[in-house]
Amino acid sequence: MSKLVTVILAAGQSTRMKSKRSKVLHNLAGQPVISYVVDIAKKGVKSEKVIVVVGPKQDDLRKYLKENHIAEAIQKQPLGTGNAVQASENKLKGFDGYVLVLCGDVPLLQAEVVSSFIKRVKSKNFTLGVLTMTPSDAGNYGRIVRDLDGEVIKIVEARDASEEELKIREVNSGILCFDAKWLFKSLKKLSNKNVKGEYYITDLVGIALKEGASVVAFNGEPAHDLLGINTRIDLARAYEIMRERINKKHMLGGVGLLDYRHINIDANVKIGADTSIMPYSFIRGDTRIGKDCIIENGVVIENAVIGDGVHIKAHSVIEDSKIADGAIVGPFSRVRPDSKVGKGARVGNFVELKKCDLKDGAKANHLSYLGDASIGSGVNIGCGTITCNYDGVSKYRTVIGDNVFVGSDTQFVAPVRIGKCATIGAGSTITKDVPADALALSRSDQKIIKNWSKKRKKKKSCS
């Protein structure tokens, strides 16, 4: 079996995206656009080597490639696709096999389609293979021109096509496969005598046919899987298709999605069977959700681990945190990064956690802020409780032992420790450690001034 390497073209100017970010790094379901193409090359068709062709000013893309250990080749000037592929030649010296050329802005590409295409090219040792599509609007894509026997005779770019050629609906997807030795020898024969003055890799079809080399065109329908992203409109359309794919995969795995068209789940998310998710939720990043959970409407979960049987109520936000089995969060709760909610614990409406470890069975049901805190198991946090963790310069921790009862409207001025089974009276400001089993109060004595209102009214009327 012939060896295979992949060259991914990603040096485009991205001007139509109207963004300082490289086009292929824009987010699509939690991942950069190009990551889907790289996965096809590495995992889908198992390329021995993957090389991404970048422009000289794409520092953000080069940084991404370096961080992900992906080889790069630099196209010094934007002189067309043929010149871009030629930029990879030094990385492939001595290679004997096939070169697959992919476009970095085609994230909906399916591994099965590419595998079938490569298999077809290799099966009869074709010199060159072209993956084609038949979109409803051929637009600016290069037209596939065939003879009366249906054999490909050339690919003509839309800018250079005649009126008759522009009527052709079968177009070049930009995905090609070449015999490596023939490719790099023939790239030197390309001409830039066209409207844009560029070296088109598709002109290799004509060169191959003139030399008597074998060429095959393989149709890779559905066409929308092969469409490139050039504008933010294209990106939004690609996301619609990607979202439907992701959501259908989860539903087939036993996840209940009440309205899958209005539920947004990133590509890397894992969800257990019999979990139900309601509309207008966003499940992002590397989130892991267990089985038998309920995720209500408007919830946002990002890079979190959610256990089994968890109930996340409406309009709650959970980021970079862990929620253990059987816990209840929300509605309108915010669990900020580095927090842990223990088994059966409750985080109620308008409660905010930040770097907080809420142990098993602990409850904070209403209107509280618990930051930089460790809350023991079985603790009850009364409404309006605050851990005052910041003195304007540094952050400090509050540690509350097991089975403590905290009355409403309590402030813990950190650093402070509360022993197990202690009770904190409502309305207290706690500035010192409280021993186990103690009652802590910090209220001033209540005073009653009789007839105060009458005197006040009388004074007002005399003024």
What does this protein structure show overall?
Strands 13, 14, 16, 17, 19, 20, 22, 23, 25, 26, 28, 30, 33 and 36 form a 14-stranded parallel β-sheet that branches. 20% of the residues lie in helices and 29% in strands. Helix 2 links the parallel strand 4 (49-54) and strand 5 (71-74). The protein is built from nine helices and 39 strands. The protein has two domains: 3-226, Alpha-Beta Complex (Spore Coat Polysaccharide Biosynthesis Protein SpsA, Chain A), CATH 3.90.550; 246-440, UDP N-Acetylglucosamine Acyltransferase, domain 1 (3 Solenoid), CATH 2.160.10.10. With 463 residues, it is of the alpha/beta class. The termini are far apart.
Briefly characterize the structure:
With 463 residues, this protein is an alpha/beta fold. Helices cover 20% and strands 29% of the residues.
Keywords:
39 strands; 29% strand; single chain; Spore Coat Polysaccharide Biosynthesis Protein SpsA, Chain A; 20% helix; 463 residues; 2 domains; 11-stranded parallel beta sheet; 14-stranded parallel beta sheet; elongated; alpha/beta; UDP N-Acetylglucosamine Acyltransferase, domain 1
